[in-house]
TrEMBL record:
This is 3-phytase. It holds the Pfam family Phytase-like. It comes from the Bacteria. InterPro entries: Phytase-like_dom. Residues 56-367 form the Phytase-like domain. Residues 1-25 form the signal peptide. Keywords: Signal.
Length: 383
């Protein structure tokens, strides 16, 4: 998120009952995910704070992806024209396919994202302003798909106009090529219904047959945001390659990993990115910002098989029980012993000579000098 407050490993089967607003949901061990595992850490690289590049200020990198044919990386900024118009960068990550060593990162270009009428998106607080949070390169069509989180007024921002979240196709020059239909239950409003402010689209991924996106946290109708005592559901929406909406599944966000300091302090917790392993297994980043504690981030493997399709349900806190996606912990980034950053990006890098795949995790510095733009590379198997 552009707000600075927005916010490997023991494998445990998520087979306990969870309750959202009195609605019990059971994650079954019979549909537990596979065995993706981190095998080694390959290195860390950073970009300088507020790096100046081709007339733009670099920061707020909230989504990354790679074109495997050209080894071009894409980085989307969630700058809402505080510095420059909505944009994405291209670049290179130096990952040695023989040794796995992660040796560097550099930018090679910057592209302004354009509206359907060919103009840049307006600045923050204006109608149709964009909040880019995720980007994917589609190796099948060779187009880019990016996600706007949307915006709406709330009690602390009463003058913000409603701006519906969206997923829009663009070419590599940033020109608009179309968009996916968004389910009605994800429509933003100026009432206590639909997605909350800053809880819109945050993660996006492709499989050969589907496209999937996740909203960061619970809709008003689905329950309250996570607390230390209880978690909350976020909705994963799945589209077919024909663009038709297929299903929605509930992702069970954990309870907060720590209490804020002071106890009345602010918190913000949800899913900041997803990444497909295959047609039904994804990785998911759960990211929390907790006042007095800072960031906490965990990486989970999730499995959609066996989960209830909740597309037709307006509420996940009232009505019949449902089964959420199953989840398994892959890595707790707090276990590294270093300060956890605002991790918001996941992407596959090149496969190594050992047969391991590479996983890159990136952070959004929020243009804040207390945070960094960081890229962490890991080798993994089971992917």
């Amino acid at each position: 998120m552009a707000n600075w407050r927005k916010m490997m490993g023991v494998a445990v089967a998520f087979a306990t009952a969870i309750c959202f607003g009195g609605v019990e949901a059971q994650a079954s061990a019979a549909t537990s995910p596979g065995d993706l595992r981190i095998t080694r850490f390959l290195g860390e690289q950073r970009l300088p704070h507020k790096l100046q590049f081709e007339g733009t200020t670099v920061g707020g990198l909230s989504g990354i992806d790679r074109d495997p044919l050209t080894d071009t990386w894409y980085f989307i900024s969630d700058d809402r024209w505080r510095y420059n118009p909505a944009r994405f960068y291209t670049g290179k990550l130096d990952i040695n396919r023989i040794t796995g060593r992660f040796g560097g990162v550099r930018l090679t270009g910057v592209t302004t994202l354009l509206r359907p009428d060919g103009t840049p998106y307006p600045a923050y607080g204006q109608p149709e302003s964009a909040d880019p949070e995720t980007i994917r390169f589609d190796r099948w069509s060779r187009k880019l798909l990016w996600g706007h989180e949307g915006d709406r007024p709330d009690e602390t921002h009463p003058a913000i106009p409603v701006s519906d979240l969206f997923l829009r196709w663009v070419d590599r020059d940033g020109r608009h090529l179309g968009e996916l239909p968004i389910p009605g239950n994800l429509k933003l409003t100026d009432t206590a219904s639909g997605p909350r402010r800053n809880f819109g689209f945050e993660g996006l991924t492709f499989t050969p047959r589907t496209i999937a996106s996740i909203v960061e946290g619970p809709r008003y109708e689905d329950g309250e945001p996570p607390t230390v005592e209880r978690g909350a559901p976020a909705r994963i929406t799945v589209w077919g390659r024909d663009g038709r909406t297929r299903a929605q599944y509930a992702y069970p966000i954990d309870p907060l990993p720590a209490a804020p300091i002071p106890p009345t302090g602010l918190t913000d917790s949800g899913v900041s990115e997803i990444l497909a392993i295959d047609d039904h297994r994804y990785l998911a980043l759960e990211r929390s910002w907790i006042e007095g504690v800072n960031y906490r981030v965990k990486l989970y493997e999730i499995d959609l098989r066996g989960a209830t399709n909740v597309l037709g349900r307006n509420s996940l806190k009232d009505g019949e029980p449902y089964r959420p996606v199953s989840k398994r912990l892959v890595r707790d980034f707090a276990s590294s012993g270093t300060a956890v950053q605002n991790l918001e990006s996941l992407a596959w890098g090149p496969r190594l000579a050992t047969g391991e795949c590479t996983l890159v995790v990136g952070s959004d510095d929020n243009f804040d000098d207390r945070e960094v733009t960081q890229f962490l590379a890991f080798a993994a198997r089971g992917c």
